[in-house]
Design goal:
By secondary structure, the protein is α/β, with parallel strands linked by helices. It has helices spanning 26-37, 93-101, 120-133, 144-148, 150-156, 168-179, 224-227, 236-250, 270-280, 299-308, 322-328, 334-346, 367-380, 398-404, 430-447, and strands at residues 5-10, 13-15, 41-46, 70-72, 87-89, 109-112, 139-141, 161-162, 207-209, 212-213, 232-233, 254-257, 285-287, 310-318, 354-360, 383-388. The radius of gyration is 22 Å and the shape is globular.
Amino acid sequence: MKRPELLLLNPWIHDFAAYDLWARPMGLLVLAAELRRQGWEPRLVDCLDRDYPDMGAVKIKRHSHGRFHRTPIPKPGALSHVPRTYSRYGVEPGLIKRELASWNTEPAAILVTGLMTYWYPGVQEAIKLVKEAFPAAPVLLGGVYASLIPEHARAHSGADQVLPGPGEGSLTEALFRWTGRVPVGNAESGRLLFTPALDLLRRVRFLPVLTSRGCPFRCTYCASKSLVPAFLRRDPADLAREIERAWLDYGFSDIALYDDAFLVDAQSHALPLLKMISERIAGLRWHCPNGLHASAISPVVAHAMKKAGFETIRLGFESSSDQFHRETGGKTSKEHFLNAVRNLKDAGFRMEQLGAYLLVGLPGQSRGRIEEDIELVLNAGATPKLAEYSPIPGTAMWPAALQASAYPIETEPLYHNCTLLPVAEQDVNWPFLQACRKRIRELSVAGD
């Protein structure tokens, strides 16, 4: 008996800038693996696929990241004042239409994800397109956008149903509601932590890895607790077997960690996993685009990371102010950060491999504070990575953002766009940040 098909759709990004820093639709891929166990046949349409046929070549960097395809499009009215080019990032819509037209049957349902709240125009465009192609199929929207501002998503996305929060249980119920089909097996929520359906990707250039979900910290600027309330982890031995199996199937050299808290309690989780992988597979390169907790990087952890082949390290530092860390959750401190960088450099990592995320454009944050943060990171021997703050509904910092912003961020998510620096002090602007980045480039080259 033929399995009923589901269309899983990863929409375009509409923004002033976007870059593929080891990005894959992990939520859809792990849901696809579970849906298969329940008797469905998922098919992925990825509007961000840099390997899409007939799109022309894009430069793939040695470690498998690079630029998205980009098409300039008109700016939404709310962003018309921004003197930058607004673009659709991803595959040309005509090619997606052609792919959907090639389907022999209409899918039983269409599952769409959405990430940043201010990327909702790309979600709207994608949903409009699939509804034109398959008018009878219900469209279910999940992901970050649907979870953080579900009422906006219900009013503006065009989806038939919006599913906030982790999608496992609610999706099963929603599919029954819209299709009448009872799953053939029970959901296995623990296995959703990894086992993405990699065969749905056009090409596996690297392995996206999620060894845990959620985070034990409650940082006031972060939405992790709102999106995944519980902190859940996979068994390191199971993970090692699955990574080895994927490596045998696809032969990748790069691994991108998607965890929010990979190194927390490293003795029982990260260290045994890295040891088992190092014993089974030689020559892997690990990358940490989400950032690692500096307070967890002891000399033992740093040397284990070096032995395992970590190549791109990002530390979630945010600020050199200990007062900031005390007020925002206590995730780290200046001392922890300095110790982490020292331990990593002692293990053999170079400055160009060590990046430290610094939040800029926070409510009440001064130019002087940003300059001090940059200097401390540079003097420590790491590279500052400036991350413009985007206000996130539902976080503890959201009320301060509402008070600080001159934009109506409560009613229009486009104003969450970090390009606007929507809650920054008046003199923390793009010319200032561009000057900061120029100084970082000059001093990073001189210091390494």
